[in-house]
Amino acid sequence: MSKIVMFLLLLVAFSHQLMAIEEGKVRILAIDGGGIRGILPSVILKQFELSLQKLNSSARIAEYFDVVAGTSTGGLIAALLTAPDPQNKDRPLYSADDILQFYRQHGPSIFTEDPNWYV
Q1: How many other β-carbons are positioned within 10 Å of the β-carbon of residue 99?
Q2: What is the SS3 assignment for 90?
Q3: Which end of the chain is less congested by CB atoms within 10 angstroms, N or C?
Q4: Alpha-carbon distance 112 to 96, whole Å?
Q5: How far apart are CA 117 and CA 17, in angstroms?
Q6: pLDDT band at 25 (very low <50, low <70, confident <90, very high)
Q7: Confidence band for 89, pLDDT divided at 50, 70 and 90
Q8: Residue 47: Cβ within 10 Å count
Q9: Where are the beta strands (DSSP E) in 15-105?
Q10: What is the mean pLDDT of the chain?
Q11: Do the bridges between strand 28-31 and strand 67-70 make them parallel or antiparallel, or are there none, so unpaired?
């Protein structure tokens, strides 16, 4: 399925949220895929979140975007960024640093270099 079709499906899925956005402005965070290279956007997102936390010490990236989406490993990052905290459904469970640590710890076992991984 093409990236454009996936993006449009996500827009439809989140249309109820988009209707509530003021002044027609939609803040979209799109995260590209790339297997273990997902660690690169994770590093950038961590730095971005640290910058936001200079203004608000408890800031999480997902709180600043209306739609967060990604392809492949970017979709995994998007899901982790937007997963709700069971104790506070209005707050994301994971920080960007949590996601970076997830990639460092589990990346090698998830993203194998074995060319026969699909067999």
Answers
A1: 25
A2: strand
A3: C
A4: 23
A5: 39
A6: confident
A7: confident
A8: 13
A9: 28-31, 67-70, 84-85, 88-92
A10: 79
A11: parallel
CA distance linking residue 3 with residue 22, whole number of Å: 27
Cα 49 to chain centroid, rounded: 12
What one-letter code names the amino acid at 84? P
Percent of the chain with pLDDT over 90: 32
Q: Which residue has 């971005």 as its token pair?
A: 48
Closest alpha carbon to 28 in 41, 18, 42: 18
Q: How deeply is 20 buried, as exposed, middle or buried, from its count of CB atoms within 10 A (0-12, 13-18, 19+)? A: exposed
* Full-model pTM: 0.71
Place of tokens 């490993």: 73
Matching residue, tokens 């249309």: 15
